[in-house]
Design goal:
The chain is about 45% helix and about 15% strand. The protein is of the alpha/beta class. The radius of gyration is 17 Å and the shape is globular. The relative contact order is 0.15.
Length: about 240
């Protein structure tokens, strides 16, 4: 991991118990951040967060709940402010994937994907932006996907949500730039995380020009660069981390 110093800053990471969110959270902690971690309540999430709490005592706070619920966004903002009196970083990573062909997608699945991947992201971004505006400083990273730009068979709804994330990133970047709040997106390609069904990575990896799936830590590297002072003049950008795909 590239050494980036974010000592004293306060971050919120949604969907932080595994995959890209977990890698981003750990990278932020290594860089000196205090981090508010979020995930849906589960034994897996509790165990993951307990490991980080043990490794980084007094710098980890946990908030359980779906980002689709307004109460979760409020709890995250309140947790950052009650404990640290500030918010500098938001990583909107929480997301779900449901592969379905056109004609087989239920209304409930459409609503669930948009509620988590888009609406929840916007709710948390609104609250975070208000807090960041008080200090006239902040950085927001939205996790999109390369399918948000190129689409993919069987992922009409998922692709639509990730396109929406890119559109929200562009608009928020323009709106918040005068307050010195930067908003960027990272668009991963095929990344080896638990979101994939068994056998999917092996089936798709040969189609990646780099010849392999990426690692969550490689996406975290891109996130950390965009959050760092080295990217102080970068906003409204979508950074692909896709091995050439």
């Amino acid at each position: 991991m590239t050494i980036i110093d974010l000592s004293g800053r306060v971050a919120i990471v949604t969907g932080a118990s595994r995959g890209i969110g977990r890698a981003a959270a750990e990278s932020l902690l290594k860089a000196g951040c205090n981090v508010v971690l979020n995930a849906r309540a589960s034994n897996e999430a509790s165990a993951s967060f307990a490991e980080l709490e043990e490794a980084y005592p007094d710098r980890v706070t946990t908030v359980y709940g779906s980002v689709a619920e307004s109460a979760t966004a409020s709890a995250l903002a309140q947790s950052a402010m009650s404990r640290h009196k500030r918010l500098d970083i938001l990583v909107n990573n929480a997301g779900i994937l449901r592969d379905k062909l056109i004609g087989m997608i239920s209304d409930a699945e459409i609503e669930e994907l948009f509620d988590v991947n888009v609406i929840g992201l916007i709710k948390i971004t609104q609250l975070a932006a208000r807090l960041m505006a008080r200090r006239k400083s902040g950085s927001i990273i939205n996790i999109s996907s390369i399918v948000g730009r190129r689409g993919n068979s069987g992922q009409t709804v998922y692709s639509a949500t990730k396109s929406a994330v890119i559109g929200a990133t562009f608009s928020a970047a323009k709106e918040l730039a005068p307050m010195n709040i930067r908003v960027n997106a990272v668009a991963p390609g095929l990344i080896a995380t638990e979101i994939h069904e068994p056998g999917r990575l092996e089936r798709l990896a040969p189609g990646v020009p780099a010849g392999r799936a990426g690692a969550a830590e490689e996406v975290a590297e891109a996130i950390m660069f965009l959050l760092s002072d080295a990217a102080s003049y970068i906003t409204g950008t979508v950074l692909r981390v896709a091995g050439g795909r």
